[in-house]
Amino acid sequence: MTLVVAHRGASAYRPENTMPAYELAVEQGADAIELDVHLTADGQLAVIHDETLDRTTDRSGEVRLQTMEQIRDADAGSRFAAGDGSQPYAGQGLRVPTLPEVLDWLPEGVGLVVEVKAAEAVEATLVALRDSRVRQAQAVTVISFDESAIERVRELDRDLPTGLLLVPFDRVERGLVWAAERGHGGVFPWDGDLGLDPTPILSQAAAFGVRIGCYVVNESQRMQLLAATGLWGFVTDVPDVARAALGPRQEPLA
Ligand code: G3P
Ligand code: CA
């Protein structure tokens, strides 16, 4: 079964990395949620994609230089524009979540992919995950573009699945070799790097004992092709399109 992983939640429809975006992803049948974490000035984990507040909130400045309380003042719904150009979530009280907040909420049977955006956030991420339900259900993976970040995860917690994100146009085979040699279970390339037919790369991955997920897939036919190859999962902004393409959710994650 190829997993439908909601990219920053159902981010095509609601402000990315907010609780309403995660809630909608679950309603739409996502198997797992992908989110991004940064460390704040007071050692907390802010769930936000960028290093700064500027693009997604009404505030500015670097996340790492602000306390979580300061970050929680920002309106995380203020920048999202609907298809008609309106901003229906501005002023609705949406906040930048913390990782523990998402973990407390995450429904049973829904998986989680935590992307550590800065290596400094690794220790706090592991503390947050340690006693979480999703960890106990073995349904969480920690990924990063930063090799040192996932190396640190493995050093501190060998039982937690990890994956290396590859930037677009990086060689997938390089990632597979690197991950296999270091015991990381997954490699997550840009979909474009899997090629029109991902079968050869997936065979290589199977030989290395490494699973492949890819980002970001929003087109129905491509979703169906990827699912037919047995890919571990893909990240999408539109979980509803994925469910329509692949059929109803089969079973909760173990
Ligand atoms: O899951 C992979 C994807 O989230 C990586 O890219 O920039 O959306 O964090 P980005
Ligand atoms: Ca991400």
How is the secondary structure organized here?
Layout: E1 3-7, H1 19-27, E2 32-39, E3 45-47, H2 68-71, H3 99-105, E4 111-116, H4 122-130, H5 133-136, E5 140-144, H6 147-156, E6 162-165, H7 172-182, E7 186-188, H8 199-208, E8 211-214, H9 220-229, E9 233-236, H10 239-246
Parallel strand pairs: 1-2, 1-9, 2-4, 4-5, 5-6, 6-7, 7-8, 8-9
Antiparallel strand pairs: 2-3
The protein binds SN-glycerol-3-phosphate and calcium ion (CA).
Q: Distance between the terminal alpha carbons, to the nearest Å? A: 13 Å
- Output the CATH topology: TIM Barrel
Instruction: List the bound ligands.
Output: SN-glycerol-3-phosphate, calcium ion
Q: How many domains is the backbone divided into? A: 1
| Count of discrete alpha- or pi-helical segments spanning 4 or more residues | 10
| Largest β-sheet summary | 8 strands, parallel, barrel
Given helix and strand content, the structural type is: alpha/beta
Quick one: overall form?
Answer: globular
Give the CATH superfamily: Phosphatidylinositol (PI) phosphodiesterase
Beta-strand level of the residues, as a percent range? 15-25%
**Order of SSEs, N→C?**
EHEEHHEHHEHEHEHEHEH
Helix content: 25-40%
Radius of gyration: 17 Å
Q: Would you identify the regions where 5 or more consecutive residues have pLDDT less than 50? A: none
Q: Report the count of strand segments.
A: 9
Q: CATH architecture, please?
A: Alpha-Beta Barrel
Strand neighbour order, sheet with most strands:
1-2-4-5-6-7-8-9
CATH C-level name = Alpha Beta
| Overall mean pLDDT | 97
